Amino acid sequence: MNRSDWQTEEFERQRAHLRAVAYRMLGSTSEAEDAVQEAWLRLSRSDTTEIENLGGWLTTVVARVSLDMLRSRASRREEPSGAPLPDDIEGLTAGSDPEHEALLADTVGSALLVVLDMLSPAERLAFVLHDMFAVPFDEIGAIVGRSSNAAKQLASRARQKVQGSGPAPDADPARQREVVDAFLAASRHGDFDALVALLDPDVVLEADASAVQMGSPEETRGAAAVAGTFSGRALAAQPALIDGAVGVVWAVGGRAKVAWDFTLRDGKIVHIDMLAAPASLDALDLTLLEG
What we know:
The longest helix is centred in the first third of the chain and has 24 residues, at about 5-25. The chain is elongated. A 7-stranded mixed β-sheet has the order 2-1-6-5-4-3-7, sandwiched between helices. The protein has helices at about 5-25, 30-45, 55-75, 85-90, 100-105, 110-115, 120-135, 135-145, 150-165, 175-190, 190-200, 210-215, 225-230, 280-285, and strands at about 200-205, 220, 240, 245-250, 255-265, 270-275, 285-290. The protein has 2 domains: about 1-115, no CATH class; about 170-290, Nuclear Transport Factor 2, Chain: A (Roll), CATH 3.10.450.50. The protein has 14 helices and 7 strands. The model is unreliable at about 75-110 (pLDDT under 50). With about 290 residues, it is an alpha+beta fold. Helix 1 (about 5-25) runs antiparallel to helix 2, helix 7 packs across helix 9 and helix 11 packs across helix 13 (about 225-230).
């Protein structure tokens, strides 16, 4: 068997799994098919001799394509996709169509699709890939341009929304905005005690490689240390929606140069992801807010 035939055979073996991943990401059978077809086109154009795990590679490609489609959908402000499952999926029974059996096993119900539409594109990807397909957080982080810990925070944030009847208190944008505004005010005025009060005692501030090159420590732990990093600073920063959560951005001419993505729990900031790499910033679902 030549390599082209092997690739075709392996792709067909993975097709049902890839459709399941794409459908859970997109909530649309037609868009899922488009994502899988794009994965096939990319496979046919790629040199796979160095790929050790073709199934993992294809899953990553489908996830990236689906993420781009979700972000494009969000930018067009399309209506959520949480409609009843199409007949060709929901009406299937085991053995009715061998090509669809694996997809049937992995399909989510229409109720969960409605809930998934509450998530930002990055949250949805992290939740679907990790909680539904057990993809490691380091691989998810690479897809969304985040650290492994930041990907874990995205999945945790998504899980809170999915498991509750509505957004969890820490996932409420209004509550997030209150905390972020208080954080910015304390930072600008150098109010160290106020900053510490807003931070969880075990808060972690992580900086990506570009932020480290700008002089930030790669990791800062503890409320006092993190408060010291921000005290008297953030004069030019402003609040922003970052992948569906309220965070802080330093922007020049309307373009983000550095973003601080906050994760809150029980009214405290528990994690801050500092992003400065252009590719990571471009990958964010980001909207600047009035300061």
